[in-house]
From TrEMBL:
Protein's UniProt name: ATP-dependent DNA helicase
Catalyzed reactions: ATP + H2O = ADP + phosphate + H(+); Couples ATP hydrolysis with the unwinding of duplex DNA by translocating in the 3'-5' direction
Family per record: Belongs to the helicase family. RecQ subfamily.
Keyword Chaperone part of the UniProt annotation: no
Gene3D superfamilies reported for this sequence: HRDC domain, P-loop containing nucleotide triphosphate hydrolases, Winged helix-like DNA-binding domain superfamily/Winged helix DNA-binding domain
Amino acid sequence: MGSVLPPEYEDLCRLRHLFPGVPIAALTATADAITREDIADRLFGGEVDSFVLGFDRPNIRLAVEMKREWKRQCRSFIGRHEGESGIVYCLSRKKTEETAALLVADGVRALPYHAGMEKTDREAHQNVFMTDPGVVMVATIAFGMGIDKADVRYVLHTDLPGSVEAYYQEIGRAGRDGRAAEAHMLYGLADIRMRRQFIEEEDAGPERRRREHKRLDALLGYCEAPACRRVTLLEYFGEQNEPCGNCDVCLDPAERIDGTEDAQKILAAVYRTGERFGAAHVIDVLRGTATEKVGRAGHDRLPTFGMGAARGKNEWRSLIRQMVATGLLRLDIGGYGGLSITGKGRGLLQGESVFLYRRDTAPARSSEPARDPGGRRRKEPQDGSLSGPETALLDALKALRLRLANERGVPAYVVFPDRTLIDMVRRRPRTEEEFAEVNGVGAAKLKAFAEPFLAAIESVLADAG
């Protein structure tokens, strides 16, 4: 099994040999059990005294909101905290600058902070935030280490963090004076896609990438938690807690649906496949997908094979994440991502309890053509429904598409079909995050075409005044 620690951290193991007899302490605020074990083993050869304090910060109200119009949602949330100090985390430097400017235009005293700024500017902005009341710091994760400002009343994530550990560390900068504070997160499909892409592009081995994907799965389970968020968050770090009454799920519960029968199907599939396979394999068994792996294991002969064919993959993924979040299934982050059944899950399998779930908050776009109520295929939007300025933008995007297609020696539709360009015109994305929301933009095309198309949109809109 590979280490969860980056190579530069593993080099620290030399310290106990270089300084024999000198006491060494390793301190971390957010490491999960697997990481703590890895630190103890690799840095200290397992010879450690370990002390773990409680993770609960009950004064911080937790909330997660599906991203729709992030600028409006951001302004609305910060508008409720007029005159208060807060931190707004953004995924990119460009979005950090854009968000700070947006808030300043609303009369908020907001300052940007990211690694691309001059050191003197970063230090100046940090000093203002630390000393003046009512300042909002809009930052990437470059901001936060060593920050101990007692009166931060909120932390807002405009994008999905990288992991539960990162999220917990970042929201922990709120409410250090013990007074009420808020941690509010916005997340959307584009966030998930980009986080997956970041993991795949990381200069790391397959073992570390696999674990990072599982950690992201755990964070998505928190986002989709059907029950108290604090219970889900603390369970990740190995702590038990009662429903807190201070999170959005407790304070304003969403409609929950009885999913006991489907949960029992999942548990049966996990049990019959040996409690060692990951979610993707379990879903293939449930949906009756005869993959090579399923056939090689003989799982196409199980009674559970195909019993869940009526549901799509994303529906099963959401159900499994919510079952992990509520303690019915255990996700083996330290191993190969296999699912196993907890004692609570065995009780449900035996009919001793029920499973209530929330409908998937991030439904996948269907690859099937849209149809009207009569079953007829809907027509794609046509150029003629666009306004004059929109038509001009579409023409510019088509010209860019043709140039890119010629450079690559492929037909124009391979770059983007017309319907994607039309959706681009209607949405007018200005950032990579917004571009990723355009219908037909996947991870590969986001990477290949975001920059030229965003530049073209920016140019046309600027010329239009």
